[in-house]
Design goal:
The structure is a homodimer of 238-residue chains. Chain A is globular. In chain A, the strands form two sheets. In chain A, strands 3-2-4-5-1-8-9 form a seven-stranded mixed β-sheet. A four-stranded mixed β-sheet of chain A has the order 6-7-10-11. The mean pLDDT of chain A is 96. Chain A has a single domain, classed as Class I glutamine amidotransferase (GATase) domain (Rossmann fold), CATH 3.40.50.880. The first copy, chain A, is built from seven helices and eleven strands. Chain A has 238 residues and is of the alpha/beta class. Chains A and B meet through helix 7 of A and helix 7 of B. Chains A, B: It is found in: Cytoplasm. Chains A, B: GO terms for molecular function: dipeptidase activity; serine-type peptidase activity. Chains A, B: This is dipeptidase E. Chains A, B: One of its GO terms (biological process) is proteolysis.
């Protein structure tokens, strides 16, 4: 049985509010009982160092009552994960993040530990890697992981920071929806477009959408559609 | 001596105007004397077929007085390129485009032919691949080329459809400038942000910006800056 316990968050920060503040009650109850949460800083937003990034996350987690260390602080990250009760992977660049997890040989470690019940929270890039692959990231490919296969903690793909087309825009670059449709020319997994302010809560075979917004669901060969927090999302885990 | 002769265009289409119309005089004079222009349709915008995409490009090129066939129509694309006097690579998905060129073994063929004087025009993805690598594409990584190394027809990277930050936006995804700065955490080549409506014209060791707009230049460890069509761009080829 898969004991997964996941918090898949679109963004760490919503406009005009401090880091992680809009979902802090959710984080507190999600990690309740965890002595310490391990932070995975490898996505390096804006290229900041692992220490700098860990300090930002730890400040917030300390406020919420959790100890926090960065995974990079451990001489043997595999052993650290082997005993961790909770992990938070921050956002940044999804390619850099996945590349580093692959190079450190941590993909299987995290998958196994999550299936055993280690709590996993991600924001943005940290959420992207919970899907089957990172083919639906919005990030610039500034690193080149060996494969785009990700943690596959859920059997679909994520598109965090999902952005609706701007009808007033004169920019000719592809809309997010166009990009995901192109993805479905070559791939058939469902993609969940998760808007800023939304998160998915996964417990074993149950999944629900939380936050004030609906999510946009992309299935190959179908028109995209919206599901609200009141709708049933469990088919996504089948 | 490098006989390169390039037209590196940000976008095929500017807002409110038909396909390639805004730069048609430039295209006409660029390909002047070419009996036929070969179209490279592999970027497949929106996932359309090679035939469909070639029909769109050929319609426009025929209007401008050029014959056009798609490279996919030739049994042996290498031989077709060996005698081609001009090539146009259309936009779409940069990963899909590069992956296909790699799989068909055409990277070296195009590089060699361009150095011998075969005219090369690209728009969007077709411009992206003229740079050293495609690490600075805006596209979604829906394919996974073996390497992100590109044609290196010029010794820098491109960012077509360059988009200035929108000061009114409440979206928390990274701005284009932030993404390119992240790129420079790991890479040191210059990136040219080429706005829609702009193109670079390269002849041997000379390069200039054309169109009504300035370009944004990103150098590692420097604040980004603007260069106008009146400025000297030749340092980019040094």
């Amino acid at each position: 049985m898969n004991e997964r316990n996941l918090l898949i968050v679109s963004t760490s920060t919503v406009h005009g509010k401090p880091y992680l503040s809009y979902c802090e009650e959710t984080i507190k109850s999600f990690f309740e009982g965890a002595k310490e949460v391990i932070f995975i800083p490898y996505a390096r937003p804006g290229g900041i160092s692992h220490d700098e990034y860990t300090a930002i996350a730890a400040k917030k987690f300390n406020e919420l009552g959790f100890k926090m260390r960065g995974l990079h602080e451990f001489e043997d990250p595999k052993s650290a994960l082997a005993v961790a009760s909770g992990v938070f992977t921050g956002g940044g660049n999804t390619f850099v993040l996945l590349d580093q997890l692959q190079k450190l040989g941590l993909i299987e470690t995290i998958k196994t530990r999550v299936s055993e019940g280690m709590k996993y929270m991600g924001t943005s890039a940290g959420s992207n890697i919970t899907g089957l692959t990172i083919n639906t990231t919005n990030d610039m490919p500034i690193a080149h992981p060996e494969t785009l296969d990700a943690l596959a903690l859920v059997p679909f793909n994520l598109n965090p920071h999902y952005l609706d087309p701007d009808p007033t825009s004169k920019h000719m670059g592809e809309t997010r929806e166009t990009r995901i449709k192109e993805f479905h020319t070559y791939n058939n997994q469902i993609v969940v477009g998760l808007r800023e302010g939304s998160w998915l809560r996964v417990e074993g075979e149950y999944i629900r959408l939380e936050g004030p917004l609906s999510a946009r669901i992309f299935e190959q060969g179908k028109a995209p559609y919206e599901l609200t927090p009141e709708d049933d999302f469990n088919f996504l885990l089948k």
